[in-house]
Amino acid sequence: MRFRQVHLDFHTSPLIPGIGEKFNKKEWQRTLLDAAVDSITLFACCHHGYAYYNTKVGCRHPNLNFDLLRAQIDACREIGVKTPVYLTAGLNNYASELHPEWGEMEPSGKIYDPLFPHFHKMCFNSPYLDFLCDEIREVLELFPEANGIFTDIVSQGPCCCQHCMKGMKESGLDPLKEEDRRVYAKQVLLKYYRKTYETVKSINPDMPLFHNSGHVSIGSGEILQYFSHLELESLPTGGWGYDHYPMSAAYVRNLNFEFLGMTGKFHTTWGEFGGFKHPNALRYECSAMIANGSKCSIGDQLHPCGKLDSSTYDMIGSVYREIREKEAWCDHVESAAELAVLSGQTPGRSSAKTLPGDVGASRILLEAHIPFDIVDTEMDWSRYRFLLLPDEVRLSPALARKLNSFLENGGRLILSGTSGMAEDREAFLVPLGVDHEGLSPYQPDYIEPADPFAPESVHTPFVMYMASQRIRVNDGVSLGRVYDPYFNRTYGHFCSHQHTPFRPEPSGYDAGVMSGRILYFAHPVFSIYRAYGAVIVKEFIVNAIRRFMGNGTRLSVSGLPSQGRVTLMRQREEERYVLHLLYANTILRGGEVTLDGGTRAGRSALEVIEDLNPAGPVHIELNLPENIRSVRLVPEGTELAFTQNPAGTAAFDVPAFTCHSMIELSYGN
Fold first, then answer.
1. Upper half-sphere CA count for residue 661 (Cβ side, 13 Å)
2. CA 54 – CA 27 distance, rounded (Å)
3. What are phi and psi of 596, to 5 degrees?
4. Of the N and C termini of the chain, which has fewer Cβ atoms inside 10 Å?
5. DSSP characters over 181-244
6. Is 91 helix (H, G, I), strand (E, B) or coil?
7. DSSP letter string over 277-295?
8. Alpha carbon 587 to chain centroid distance?
9. Geometric angle at alpha carbon 569, from 634 and 245, rounded to 5°
10. Looking at residue 100, what DSSP letter applies?
């Protein structure tokens, strides 16, 4: 895979004339070369359902009078730019209008709202799947030089069309039961993966193939056999936010797939003509991609006339020319994190975008500059020293055995809330060193952390917004004391505007415990941080984690603001580590407004980047098993003075930087 890709959307209404009439090969080539683009995803068929090549299966766009895809591919091949080809899968208005019976149907019988302007969702259990596979086959036969197939909107809802109703009955499932409809939808989706994969491989066994559903779900290993690589769609201003991509990458880099990150040049999200984010935002986003072990893809949308927008490619070029200089230190990397988050997500439950414990834990680790990966229950955890289970990771007997084996082999656990409890009862299956009396009847309650864990500015009880587990420490160090409120707030008794104050005497219960190889927080602290973002709560959590990890932890960073990000990667063949430092100041802007006459405009506030302010200098201490030979800023090649003590800790200072700094630590002979 190339490092510098563009995903060139081209969803174009049949009502727009002159499709592709401004395409000019030389101008196209010059624009891509100047922008340092080395791969561009081109459209064979869009969500409107129209093809941009001479098709016999579907329908060429009614206002296109030549083979635009052929012209684009030929122009790119002449300048060495790769050309993956895009086909819409889950949405297709042309096919839907010809065959309404191919659409997904809700239990009410509704297929789509004809008066609402949107794309139509297709059912993969209908003859539409054959139509789609015929399109894929045609594209591969006409364009054998394509560098991959990208199918989009790959999902299947709990459909009640005639084909799914028949299939459910034949499978012994009850269409009246929502759970049965979901079970059958999963079966249909697997049929889609299998059939499209077999179609592609029957034409070219080596053809790359990616199916896009907007997110790579944790624990969905059964579908990965149908992928050649992964593309992580994550537009920060399109609803994902700036913490989503590091979380996705932290999981995917353990799947042994080459992958790239996908952002957009848009101020908001896909389909925004004339929308531009600040170039500094794009610079930060692509820097974050390579810092997390991936390659880059920037989303654009081609104007119907076929001419690339000069402002867009000036912006992309300013970013990709910088990425080009850094590629050598970002290819074939592996994470050197010593801590992994065991996700609470399971297939069919919730995505990592919304699961509060996963998000809160990831945000705390990002802000504390503790490198981490995300793992699922099936992965090998043996290379990690620490495993964090956020808030609600209940244990099956098999998972309990695996966790206890991890402990017996020297691993250490960080738990919170109900994590570590059995699936079927309120009992911990790992040795916490506490007496457990169930869930607290109070919400909220308060904690007064013990001195080693207290926030710097607060040494009196502070509020914890969600209920805790009632524990009393009998073996280990208490994290602090819990204070109960006088009563819960109800219509019958309440105090002041929000919280009932705490009783002046502690409740006798503990806020958590550090016992042997386990650190446990009695509250669902990571969900609390996800929901409320309280800095003093974060400081309490981080103080406990750092003390638990001890002085031998791999990485210590000082001088970097909490919005800074740190990753540590290793290139084994080159015998070096690469430390990435990132910093940008994100800010919320915009929001929905009501204009005169009641017209509503805008959307929810967007997290944007405009200014890139310098950060640092930053002091680094790295505890590594290898003998470090040199420390350099790259790609600049500037040598940094460092020390390394007999215990293996290398210490050095990184000068002030803007946006992204890479530090190479070479070892070996």
1. 25
2. 23
3. -55, 140
4. C
5. HHHHHHHHHHHHHHHHHHHHHHH-TT--EEE--SS--TT-GGGGGG-SSEEEE--GGGTT-TTH
6. strand
7. --HHHHHHHHHHHHHTT-E
8. 20
9. 100
10. G
pLDDT score at 520: 98
Q: Give the C-alpha separation, 4 to 606, whole Å.
A: 26
Buried b (16+ CB within 10 A) or exposed e, 392-408: bbbbeeebbeebbebbe
Between β-strands 295-301 and 149-152, what pairing exists: parallel, antiparallel or unpaired? unpaired
Q: How many CB atoms lie within 10 A of CB 21?
A: 15
Q: What is the pLDDT of residue 504?
A: 94
Q: How open is the CA angle 190-193-199, to the nearest 5 degrees?
A: 140
Residue corresponding to tokens 């019976």: 101
pLDDT at 352: 43
Please list the alpha-helical segments (H only) found in 22-126: 25-34, 68-78, 93-98
Residue type, 482: V
Report d(CA 525, CA 361) in Å as an integer: 8
- Provide the pLDDT for residue 346: 64
- 445 with 464: CB under 8 angstroms? yes
Cβ–Cβ < 8 Å for 347, 216 = no
- Residue 214: its pLDDT value, please? 76
Beta bridge partners of 478: 513
Structure tokens at 659: 């946006």
Phi, psi for 80 (deg, rounded to 5):
75, 20
Q: Could you tell me the two tokens for 159?
A: 């459909």
Give 106-136 as a DSSP string: -TTS----TTS--PPBBPTTSTHHHHHHHHH
- Determine contact, residues 89/48, Cβ cutoff 8 Å: no
d(CA 297, CA 270): 14
Give which of 447, 440, 441, 457 is closest to 502, Cα–Cα.
447
The whole-number pLDDT of residue 525 equals 98
Q: Pick the closest to residue 234 from 212, 251, 214 (CA basis).
A: 214
Give the contacts of 443 (CB within 8 A, at least 6 positions apart).
465, 466, 467, 488
Inter-residue contact 358 to 374 (CB < 8 Å): yes
**Structure-token match 């084994």, residue found:** 572
CA–CA gap between residue 16 and residue 567 (Å, rounded)? 46
Cα dist from 304 to 13, 116, 155, 263, whole Å: 9, 23, 28, 21
Distances from the Cα of 573 to the Cα of 295, 332, 477, 531, 594, angstroms: 19, 9, 43, 43, 58
CA distance 462 to 368: 21
- Burial class of residue 222 in the structure, from the number of CB atoms within 10 Å of its CB (0-12 exposed, 13-18 middle, 19+ buried): exposed
Give, as one character, the DSSP assignment of residue 56.
Answer: S
Strand partners, 652: 620, 642
- What is the phi/psi pair of residue 528, to 5°? -60, -45
User: In DSSP terms, which residues pair with 565 in a beta bridge?
Assistant: 582
> Which residues in the chain show pLDDT less than 50?
348-353
Q: What single DSSP character describes residue 17?
A: -
Q: Which two tokens stand for residue 393?
A: 């990771």
Give the 3-state secondary structure of residue 43: strand
Q: Residue 472 is encoded by which pair of tokens?
A: 């009393």
